[in-house]
Amino acid sequence: MQYEPHTKNTFSSAIRKELCDVSPTVRHCVLAEMSAMLEIKCDNITAAQRLKQLCLYAFNHEAYTDDIIKKATRFPAAVVHPCCKRAYIRGSFIAGGTCNDPNNSYHLEFVLPQSITATHLTDTFRAFELSPKQMQRKNNTVVYFKESDSIVQVLTIMEANKAMLQFENVRVIKEIGNHVNRKVNFETANLTKIVNAAVNQIDDINLINSTVGLEWLPEPLAQVARLRLMYETAGLKEIGAMLNPPISKSGVNHRLRKISEKAQILKERVKC
């Protein structure tokens, strides 16, 4: 399925073209598809071509007559078989459906002129365990889906398999990109947190060194303070490995907290 992304309605047009390539099978499915298209009364060229194709198959006519219209428009009440339901949804999309380019956003909708049509279509979707939402837009009822999983199901039900695969490919790429972005954001935030903590630690140690000297600290804390000043970019695990005897990362963190508490005592003294 070829289409240019980010072009208005091109993805929808490609879907409609693919649906029109679905070969008619049995007469009752043809009637189901025709009934949806005739109810919506859409005058797009693709729908007109599809109606001509279906009339030729089911009635051996290239144009639909009043008699054919009566037979087809009575059919929704008899849409019982899963194959007919698929055909009814397919006809609804050809006549009044659009689907956003998945590169932009996830949205598939059916624009319907009558509430009775919306009821038929909604009930048909429920047979496939799908629950579309509805809204009013001017004089039309819009039945729509915004969840990517539901849109994939709708495309599959209509037998728009190429469109479904295209949609899935885009979705997978977007999800991978979102996962990478989340991971980068997390690591950036974590790194920022580490850097800010190291800066605060060094500030506290410099305060102690410039006022009372590092000798004021207990020797275990003074050892960590000296290493922190010597290796400003070192991680806690690296600092712990430099001590004799070595201590764990959590042990270094504990000592640095104690140093910060000592620095806070000096700050309170200065305030007084």
Please tell me about this protein's structure.
The chain is α+β, with helices and mostly antiparallel strands. It folds into two domains: 10-159, Homing endonucleases (Endonuclease I-creI), CATH 3.10.28.10; 190-271, no CATH class. The chain is 65% helix and 7% strand. It has helices at residues 10-20, 27-40, 45-59, 66-73, 82-96, 115-126, 148-157, 161-211, 219-230, 236-242, 249-271, and strands at residues 97-99, 108-112, 133-137, 140-145. Strands 1-2-4-3 form a four-stranded antiparallel β-sheet. Helix 2 (27-40) crosses helix 4 and helix 8 crosses helix 11 (249-271).
Number of domains: 2
Q: What's the name of the CATH homologous superfamily of the largest domain?
A: Homing endonucleases
Radius of gyration: 34 Å
The CATH topology of the largest domain turns out to be: Endonuclease I-creI
Mean pLDDT over the residues: 85
| Low-confidence spans | 1-8
Looking across the biggest beta sheet, what order are the strands in?
1-2-4-3
Task: Name the structural class.
Answer: alpha+beta
Estimate what percentage of residues fall within beta strands. Answer: 5-15%
The H-and-E topology, N to C, reads as HHHHHEEHEEHHHHH
Largest sheet: 4 strands, antiparallel
Q: Identify the overall geometry.
A: rod-shaped
Write the layout of secondary structure elements.
Blueprint: H1 10-20, H2 27-40, H3 45-59, H4 66-73, H5 82-96, E1 97-99, E2 108-112, H6 115-126, E3 133-137, E4 140-145, H7 148-157, H8 161-211, H9 219-230, H10 236-242, H11 249-271
Antiparallel strand pairs: 1-2, 2-4, 3-4
Helix pairs in contact: 2-3, 2-4, 2-5, 7-8, 8-9, 8-11, 9-11, 10-11
